[in-house]
Amino acid sequence: MNPAISSVIVFFVSAAVDAVWAKYIATAAQGRAFAAAIWSSVIVGCGSFVTLEYVFNKWMIIPAVIGGFVGTYAMIKYDNK
Q1: Is 37 or 76 the better-scoring residue by pLDDT?
Q2: What is the helix (H) or strand (E) element at residue 10, kind and residue range?
């Protein structure tokens, strides 16, 4: 896959993973076990994709880190509205 396209995909998947982490933590804190389990499975699935990408290309760590920041920031801002 083209490295530029791969970088964009890694960015968005990392952003999604961190947004889902924020939802998972909130859901687990509310004691909603089934919903938290669903969020957890999404985290593992998406996180596995990102991990495989940067195992094969260390430069993918950069969009992963930036995506993680954006995902968490966006979800917290959204939840606080």
Answers
A1: 37
A2: helix 3-29
Place of tokens 């909130």: 26
pTM: 0.83
Amino acid identity at 6 = S
Using left for φ > 0, alpha for ψ between -120 and 50, and beta otherwise, residue 63 falls in alpha
Hey, how many other C-beta atoms are within 10 angstroms of the C-beta on 71? 22
Query: Given the structure tokens 């909603």, which residue do they identify?
Result: 32
d(CA 69, CA 62): 11
CB count within 10 Å of CB 49 equals 13
